Amino acid sequence: MISVQQVKYQYGKKVVLEDVTFTLPEGKIIGLIGENGCGKSTLLRLLAGVKNPTKGKIELGGQVITHQSAKEIAYLPDIDEFYPHLTGDDIFSFYQSQFNDFSKQKAEEIALFLQVEIDKKMKKMSKGQRGRIKMAATLGRNVSVYLMDEPFSGLDPMVREVLIKGLIKFLDGNNQTILLSTHELHEVEPILDGLLLLKDGKVASFENLEVLREDWQQDATQWMKKQYSKG
Amino acid sequence: MTVDFSRDKPIYTQLVEKICGDIIRGNRRLGDKMPSVREYALEVGVNVNTVQRVYKELEQMELTETKRGQGTYITNDRNKVDHLREQMKEKIVEQFFHSIEEFGFTKKEIMEQLQKQGEENK
């Protein structure tokens, strides 16, 4: 379980995140949504221990997250320049050398399921193929928390669908938590348990999706627009 | 293939209705084995937690039974399925009457129309 308490992040004079407080429940898939520039990527980097908050506290299972404890968290960054000279297989070997929880066999199985060859260099691959290798490498780790920054961004609908299926197939829904940022809300919605909405660097709302549909008869996109128009 | 859901109703209720429909139409028969939670989640493209809730709901409706270590099966009790059919019929007719009222049609003219179109569709 990750708990975030009154986190602030400032970059120079710019306040990117302010007074961010929430708890990520175990075994859920949560969508991190909000307009471009609202702080989604920064929040994920803080949770992954890549950056430290200016103020406030982030804990995983009661321990403050540092660069060290972040080893228990799998983080998929949104950069596309993912080791251009390496093949998928090289990347899996590199992951194995870095993370005790990584299973090369599992990563290969996932790559097979996602229908991507692992003996090609990343720079020779299409964006969709690189996206699949990144996903296979990330899910090849066996951890309790996965943070994914725009895993579906810029990929065609077929690739998005196969990645979504990969998430359903290879995650243990009861014990593993995912927080993923996305703009492809309509497609991703069926696999999400909840939505964490950021607005101007603050948590505007954190809702269970089935409750939204039941109580408000709204889909995620309608709801998000409504939250934004509240001013 | 992934199911296209209506986004303004809970996905679990839509899936419960879908499986009820399968049972009524006979696409799933008495005693048939259901796919595992994960298999079904993959088939329809939703979260595993959602399918767990669907399976729980079906079990509470006594339409399925879970045998320990073996999986989930459609009930062997024909009465349960007959009951479900009746319930569904009533529900459809209720909705039908509701829309008739909304438009202010009389039952008589609707009955006549039903008969007419029923003949044409034969």
Description:
The complex is a heterodimer of chains A (231) and B (122). Helices cover 34% and strands 26% of the residues of chain A. Chain A is globular and about 50 Å long. By secondary structure, chain A is α/β, with parallel strands linked by helices. A six-stranded mixed beta sheet of chain A has the order 6-7-8-3-9-10, with helices on both faces. A four-stranded antiparallel beta sheet of chain A has the order 2-1-4-5, with helices on one face. Chain A contains eight helices and ten strands. Chain B folds into two domains: 11-76, Arc Repressor Mutant, subunit A (Orthogonal Bundle), CATH 1.10.10; 79-121. Chain B is 63% helix and 7% strand. Chain B contains five helices and two strands. In chain B, strands 1-2 form a two-stranded antiparallel ribbon. In chain B, a hairpin with a 3-residue loop joins strand 1 and strand 2 (71-74). The longest helix of chain B has 26 residues, at 78-103.
Topology diagram in text:
The complex is a heterodimer of chains A (231) and B (122).
Chain A: E1 2-11, E2 14-24, E3 29-33, H1 40-47, E4 55-60, E5 63-64, E6 73-76, H2 88-98, H3 104-113, H4 127-139, E7 145-149, H5 157-170, E8 177-181, H6 185-188, E9 194-199, E10 202-208, H7 209-216, H8 220-229
Parallel strand pairs in A: 3-8, 3-9, 6-7, 7-8
Antiparallel strand pairs in A: 1-2, 1-4, 4-5, 9-10
Helix pairs in contact in A: 3-4, 4-5
Chain B: H1 11-25, H2 37-44, H3 48-60, E1 64-67, E2 71-74, H4 78-103, H5 107-121
Antiparallel strand pairs in B: 1-2
Q: What labels describe this entry?
A:
heterodimer, A: 231 residues, alpha/beta, Rossmann fold, six-stranded mixed beta sheet, four-stranded antiparallel beta sheet, globular, B: 122 residues, mainly alpha, Arc Repressor Mutant, subunit A, 63% helix
Order of helices and strands of chain B: HHHEEHH
Number of domains of chain B: 2
**Low-pLDDT stretches of chain A:** none
H-E order of chain A = EEEHEEEHHHEHEHEEHH
Largest interface: which pair? A-B, 26 and 19 residues
Low-confidence stretches of chain B: none
Structural class of chain A: alpha/beta
Distance between the termini of chain B: 32 Å
The main pleated sheet of chain B reads as: 2 strands, antiparallel
Terminal CA distance of chain A reads 32 Å
State the shape of chain A: globular
CATH class of chain A: Alpha Beta
CATH H-level superfamily of the largest domain in chain B = Winged helix-like DNA-binding domain superfamily/Winged helix DNA-binding domain
